[in-house]
Amino acid sequence: MQGRLDTYIETVQSANSLDELQGRIKDLRNVFDVEHVVYHSINSLGQQYASHTYTPEWETYYFAENFERIDPVVQGCLRRFHPVDWRRLDWSGKAARDFLGEAVDAGVGHQGFSVPIRGPSGQFALFTISDRRSDAVWEKYTEAHVRDVILAAHFINQKALEIERGSDEADVAKLSPREVDALTMLAMGYNRAQASESLSISEHTLRVYIESARSKLGAANTTHAIAKALTLGLVIV
């Protein structure tokens, strides 16, 4: 997987337009050996860019029925910063269950793993892989490849932003190794006590690193700092 992903990232870097990037995104289906891959981005002006391997018929039907209003993947990821397995989302409502049935019938697959991404100026993007593996096989697969999926998601999003603004020379905040470590621990779900213990530092020192990183990133709070660090690829979890 790692060798294929490294080669793939090199080909993505050569994309100079969103049309070219669309073809590169579809290539990820073979890289990850899954049935479907989706990247969907909405910028602060409401402009959308999407690339996926679903059928055109499902895409047309999905938007015609306004399924984004009830889709637990979309609604769940709008409230999350961390990647999520579809099985952890709320499918208990009748509308959600009916929607899932139609999605499966359309070939989407009942298993999925989605990475929510928040970019500059209110941009929101969602990167998803989906398949029809069994629960046990899917759980083993995602545990083995979660880091690769997150890496690909944020790399594609960063490339899309570069193409959209016409430059890849945007300044990126530089965090110290300890600042990266501190945000990584929190991004992985550790509380401050657990993070400071894992890093063998005091909670006070941890707080200093977090506040320093927050200031460098221009974030409003710690959660915002984690989201920005993930979006910029400064933190990978």
From TrEMBL:
Top-level lineage group: Bacteria
UniProt xrefs under Gene3D superfamilies: Transcription factor LuxR-like, autoinducer-binding domain, Winged helix-like DNA-binding domain superfamily/Winged helix DNA-binding domain
GO biological process, one term: regulation of DNA-templated transcription
Span of domain HTH luxR-type: 168-233
Key words, A-Z: DNA-binding, Transcription, Transcription regulation
Pfam families named in the record: Autoind_bind (PF03472), GerE (PF00196)
PANTHER family linked: DNA-BINDING TRANSCRIPTIONAL ACTIVATOR DEVR_DOSR
Protein name (database record): Transcriptional activator protein raiR
Protein source organism: Candidatus Rhodobacter oscarellae
Lineage: Bacteria, Pseudomonadati, Pseudomonadota, Alphaproteobacteria, Rhodobacterales
